[in-house]
Design goal:
alpha+beta; 8 helices; 14% strand; 10 strands
Length: 353
């Protein structure tokens, strides 16, 4: 019996319109929920450290894909009972497993036809700019004169916008008309010319309701301070979120300025306590390298999603509303009255059985 291999050069991608259709169908078949295409000209004014042409000078098209965060993966945090599912399934699993497999396989499909493709399921931790957009001191040097410093960072939310997949909300979260803020974004850079999709011009998604600002447990948004950029001729504005404060809030941490005998974060800093949005006495271990979303995106995702669903502007609709009970909070200044009841004895186990 002869060996078997993939078919090469079996799909003609020479016509941009037909090629775009073939690529989109393949992306959906491989697991993307939504797919759109932007031509490289839309990145003409990209900063050097965010310019796709710094990776692939011959790049002609960027394929953007939305991967939904399941509404159900937020349910346990909404109820205050099951937190790891969102970090694992709605965050880490999507980012580090599911998206990479999809963009890798889509890239293989394109390369099977004789064109080059670069899969990007998430940004590299090796990037030369910080979360605040500043070059890291003494981190890397350009390999050639005039080039960006490695690694460059393609802004995935901007890429999704330039591929026509939706809006960037006031919270800086990407909003798709299908899922609102329940999105992760993956992209593929390629030298095949694909017919681009128009920039999103559908029903308005973000109406500046400020639900994200009001619900953020760390007050990470300053509604008076925004960032404005021009993306392919479109003026886009979002809140200048305090990234440092967000990272703290994200993990359920609150700083006190007072040294704690048993801090929330192990080691330094030692003045941390759990915020009222965390039910854990100490920060849980990371999942999938960085998943530690104890806050459960309370403002930027959950409050935003609730607002969008109440307005009826999302395509992925549900039979029941998301928030069905009052918002919970933990009072860490009072003793845990049920500690003596927590031991799961053999007698209780038998009763449970």
């Amino acid at each position: 019996m002869a060996i078997m291999t993939r078919d090469f050069n079996s799909v003609d991608l020479s016509d941009p319109k037909a090629a775009a259709l073939a690529v989109k169908r393949k992306a959906l078949e491989m697991g993307a929920d939504v797919v759109g295409i932007g031509n490289i000209e839309r990145w003409a004014n990209a900063p050097l450290q965010m310019d796709p042409k710094q990776i692939m000078p011959e790049c002609k098209s960027i394929i953007g894909m939305v991967f939904r965060v399941e509404r159900g993966s937020l349910r346990g945090i909404e109820e205050g009972t099951f937190f790891s599912n969102y970090s694992a399934m709605g965050y880490g699993g999507l980012t580090y497993l599911y998206m990479p497999m999809t963009v890798i396989n889509l890239s293989k499909f394109i390369e099977d036809q004789g064109y080059e493709a670069i899969p990007m399921g998430h940004q590299s931790d090796w990037r030369a700019i910080s979360n605040n957009g500043e070059l890291k001191a003494n981190f890397s040097r350009p390999a050639r004169p005039g080039q960006a410093r490695p690694d460059i960072m393609i802004h995935l939310r901007v890429a999704a916008y330039l591929c026509g997949l939706g809006e960037i909300g006031f919270s800086k979260m990407f909003l798709s008309p299908q899922f609102g803020p329940r999105c992760r974004v993956g992209i593929v850079l390629t030298d095949v010319e694909l017919e681009p999709d128009p920039i999103y011009d559908g029903p308005q998604l973000c109406n500046r309701c400020m639900a994200c600002v009001k619900a953020c447990p760390g007050a990470c948004f300053d509604p008076e301070k925004t960032i404005k950029v021009n993306l392919a001729g479109h003026e886009v504005e979002w809140a200048d979120i305090d990234i440092t404060k967000c990272a703290i809030t994200f993990s359920g941490t609150k700083y006190t300025g007072v040294v704690q005998e048993d801090p929330y974060l192990r080691g330094n800093p030692n003045d941390t306590v759990p915020g009222e949005w965390s039910p854990f006495r100490h920060k849980p271990v990371n999942l999938y390298q960085s998943g530690q979303a104890v806050c459960g995106a309370r403002g930027c995702t959950r409050a935003c999603m609730i607002s969008l669903e109440s307005r009826g502007v999302l395509q992925n609709t549900f039979k029941e509303k998301f928030r069905r009970r009052p918002v919970w909070s933990v009072d860490w200044n009072t003793p845990d009255e049920n500690v003596t009841d927590l031991k799961f004895t053999e007698e209780k186990k038998n009763e449970a059985d």
